[in-house]
Prior knowledge:
The chain is an alpha+beta fold. The chain has four domains: about 1-135, Beta-Lactamase (2-Layer Sandwich); about 140-240, PAS domain (Beta-Lactamase); about 245-320, Signal transduction histidine kinase, dimerisation/phosphotransfer (DHp) domain (Helix Hairpins, Orthogonal Bundle); about 330-475, Histidine kinase-like ATPase, C-terminal domain (Heat Shock Protein 90, 2-Layer Sandwich). Helix content is about 45%, strand content about 25%. It is built from eleven helices and 17 strands. It has helices spanning about 1-20, 25-35, 100-140, 155-160, 185-195, 245-290, 295-320, 335-350, 370-385, 420-425, 445-455; strands at about 45-55, 55-60, 65-75, 80-90, 140-145, 150-155, 170, 200-210, 215-225, 235-240, 330, 350-360, 365, 390-400, 405-415, 460-465, 470-475. It has a six-stranded antiparallel sheet, with helices on both faces. It has a five-stranded mixed sheet with strand order 12-14-15-17-16. A hairpin with a 5-residue loop joins strand 3 and strand 4 (about 80-90). The relative contact order is 0.06. The mean pLDDT is about 80.
Amino acid sequence: MVDQRVKELVALHAAARLLRNTSLSIDALLSHICALLPPAMQFPEDACARIRFGSHEHATEGCDDVQVCLANELATSDGRKGTLEVGYRSRRRTAELLTEERALVDSVTEILGAELERRVTLQAAADRQAKLALAFATANLGLWEWDVDSGQVVWSPESAAMADTPAIEGLFWANSHLIHPDDRERVRGALSAVTTVPGRVVDEEFRFARETGRDVWVSARATHVAATAERGARVIAILADVTRRKLLEARVAQLQKLEAMGRVAAGVAHDFNNLLFVLQVSASELLETLPADDDRHEIVREMVEVVGRGEALTKQLLAFGRKSETLPVMLEPDVVIRRAEPMLKRLVGPQIELVTDLDCPIQIFADATQLGQAVMNLVVNARDAMTDSGTITIRTRVTELEGGGRHATITVADTGHGIPPEVKDRLFEPFFTTKAAGKGTGLGLAVVFGVAQQCGGSVSVDSEPGNGARFHVNIPARYS
């Protein structure tokens, strides 16, 4: 039986080599294991083997006529089952199965079952990791892990993308330049706080300062994982990109601020208008009572003219505060702009080219006079943004705004000096102006904002210093 024992050991060694070859698929592994069993049997020329596992099945030649001597079960934790069978084609061999043969089959079954279970476990872990990665990517979440003792930090690809940097490993504070300077100390304090108590959770919001200049706001939830026998203490944080939410919050805050200022402006305008009315009546009566040759005629006429300018100012204030009387009707913005085009060309002067590109054949519900005033204010602003020459383009289009349906979008673009970032947030505030004293009231864009809001629309601007400005008035389409 020494020869049989040698065969058994050789077969087990071959099986062990196969199991170490992780590049083999399960199907290839089962095929190879099935093939090595018959040569290890006492009568190899008469022996056969068959392996069934899940949807896989492999058998050596002649297995259809085999007399099964031994059948061992295979099963893995994912619910797949099978058998490993060996036998002889001759009936007289079935009673002669040696102890070494049975030990070989049992050993191969055991180690094959262990390898199949290992692969199932690894595949399950890989599937979970893939699902987790997909969930993080879909939810726009990032992950980083900080080893408290060593200071090493590992960034997930998603969190590295938020910081606009390649996936990195290294000391956390060696990469602190990625955090906005105004937020670094706050982040440092939050991390110090979370490391004091195992299991503690800290929420913080901060900015990644990208090289492109576009900061990204992230919301971080960090937790302290206590040290174990295998690993030291860690801080694990989940990062969420909340830039869009922050922009919306800033926009809402700006709208609320402008709404409040509009109400104040409208209230002041009403009271001021009453005073102007008294002045106008008194000045008119005084002008009528003065003799025609009286030198005071010119002074009174100047008073009447100033009162007129004051009335125009209150009308703009009331338009900004949405308190003025309006006559909204169904109209096409293209028609309003075409009618105003000759006046607008005279307004910008001969050195500036005014181009119209009108293609918005839908109707909106608006006051034609106010809409014309808004377009005129934008054109005047564009004219003042250019020194000697340039081009102003008025463009209309039908647009589909996200979550808002069809809109008429009126865009006034110029080739002027552009708008600095620190000014953009204040553009629509009443009385805010960058023009020299006496050159503007600071109400032009405030009126545009008020008109758009009164029509149920909005105003936006995109501009970079040295690259002109583009103002977009979006008004929802209406159907008669």
